[in-house]
Structures are given as C-alpha cells and as structure tokens.
Design goal:
Strands 1-2-3-4-5-6-7-10 form an eight-stranded antiparallel beta barrel. It has a two-stranded antiparallel sheet with strand order 8-9. By secondary structure, the protein is an alpha+beta fold. The protein is elongated and about 85 Å long. It is 23% helix and 56% strand. 20% of the residues are buried. The chain has a single domain, classed as Porin, CATH 2.40.160.
C-alpha cells in the first residue's frame, strides 16, 4: 500500500512540475500549410536561349513548424547543333526529400522561411544524334546515333529563403548544390545536359531557382515558445555600482569619525 501511495504522489508531482513549466512559457498558433510551387526562371531562360527548355514544380506539406515533406518534378528539352552534328536530349525528373526551416516559430509565423532542403533526385531521359557529318580524305561521311534511354540519380542540398507577399502567396529562391550518383550512360557517354541535374559532364553542379508558391492552410498547431529571460547584466552592474558607492560612503564616514575633534 505504501508503494502505491508513493507512486501516485510521484505522478502528481510530475504533473504539477509540468504545469508550472508550461505556465512559465508562451504559446503561439502556428498554421501548417500545403504549398504548391512553380519554378519561373526555366521558361524565362528559354526566351533568350532556345536550346534549353526546363519546367519544374513541387508540392510540400508541413508536418510541424520546422519540417516539411517535399515532392517535385519537371521536364527538360535540350537541342544543340553545329555545322557538322545535331544533338537532342529530352526527359523528366523527380525529387523527394524534406525542407527544414531554421527560423524560430515566433519569427516565421508560417509566412517566412529561411532554411535548407535535402532531396534525392532521379531522372529518365532519351539522347540521340539525328545526324553528323565528317569530311576526310575519302570524302564526306554522313551517319546518326539512334535514340537511347537512360536513368540517372543525384543528391541535392538547397539553401534558400521564401516570404509571403500577399495572402497565401509567396515568392522565394533557392541555391541548388547537386552531386551526381550515376549518369545512367556510363562515364564515357555522359549526356550533355541531365534533366534536373545540369551539365552531365560534371560530378557536382550548382544553380539558382526562383519560385512562386501558393500556400493552402490545412491545420493550426499550438507551439510552445520559451520566454526570453531578462538580461541581468545591467542590473548586476548597477547593483554592483550602488554597493560600491555605499561602501565608499561608509568608509568615508568611518574616516571622518576617526579624526579627533578639537577641544574648544
């Protein structure tokens, strides 16, 4: 029986301590959202460089105030030609991973994001050389390379920022740092441009993406935030100076009392 009483008393004390700690903290209402983002720089680049057209979009869902699951994908069409050959590459790519918000909940409020994403990417593409010509001693040679299909894999880290400019509408940018895991064609036949990755001749690539994002709130969460503790430095310094002044004053008083008074 005594052990039973001790058990219940312990449980009661734990609840009281927890309640005291929570009461010493503040809570905010944080909106969890589903986000649909569209990359806008790819179509814009196409107007100045007709060789490459890239489109991309993503969907993410907040699982808490710090982490969101992300899935995305896009398409690529790359065409290059010179006086003696033509090259075509087109395909699709997908990404899956998580985004981490480094801002405190009371700073982000579901409207601002500054953090980093970690994603795994995969692509499927077709490459072909419709025609190439070679002139030598024996004359002009014409030929072609048939279409081939390949799969590639890569990892990427995407630091960036995003801010809500209108209600449920955000804009932002990310810097993508990508590392190639497998080209899909072997090291001697790498594609000129790999969908979702970039220059297929490099093992590591980088790029900048600009997004317009539509936010869809789906849930509200109460987030506990710690109160900022007051800065006791000034109070301590002030208290120390007051004590020092009091000490000096008392010393002066003792010195004055130690001086003998003149007899009249």
């Amino acid at each position: 029986m005594r052990r039973t009483y001790v058990f219940f008393i312990s449980i009661l004390l734990i609840h009281l301590i927890s309640a005291t700690q929570v009461s010493a903290q503040d809570t905010i209402t944080f909106p969890l959202k589903i986000k649909v983002g569209l990359e806008v720089s790819g179509p814009a680049i196409y107007y100045s460089n007709k060789k490459i057209l890239s489109t991309e979009a993503y969907v993410s869902a907040d699982i808490n105030e710090k982490v969101a699951w992300v899935v995305g994908g896009g398409t690529l069409k790359y065409a290059y030609s010179q006086y003696n050959y033509e090259y075509l590459n087109k395909g699709i790519f997908g990404r899956i991973g998580a985004d981490f918000n480094l801002l405190k909940p009371e700073k982000s409020l579901g409207k601002y994001w500054a953090g980093v994403g970690v994603h795994y990417g995969i692509n499927r593409f077709n490459t072909e050389v419709p025609a190439f010509r070679d002139s030598n001693y024996w004359g002009l040679t014409k030929s072609s390379v048939a279409q081939k299909t390949a799969w590639g894999h890569f990892l990427e880290i995407t630091p960036g920022v995003r801010a809500e400019v209108f209600r449920n509408l955000s804009i932002g940018w990310t810097i993508s740092l990508r590392m190639l895991l497998y080209t899909g064609t072997g090291k001697d036949l790498r594609p000129i441009y790999s969908p979702g990755f970039g220059n297929g001749a490099n093992r590591v690539t980088s790029g900048v993406s600009y997004f317009i994002v539509w936010n869809i709130p789906y849930k509200k969460k109460q987030v506990i935030i710690k109160k900022e503790e007051p800065d006791d430095t000034e109070d301590t310094a002030q208290s120390g100076s007051e004590q020092s002044g009091t000490g000096q004053q008392s010393v002066g008083t003792r010195q004055q009392s130690a001086v003998p008074q003149r007899q009249q």
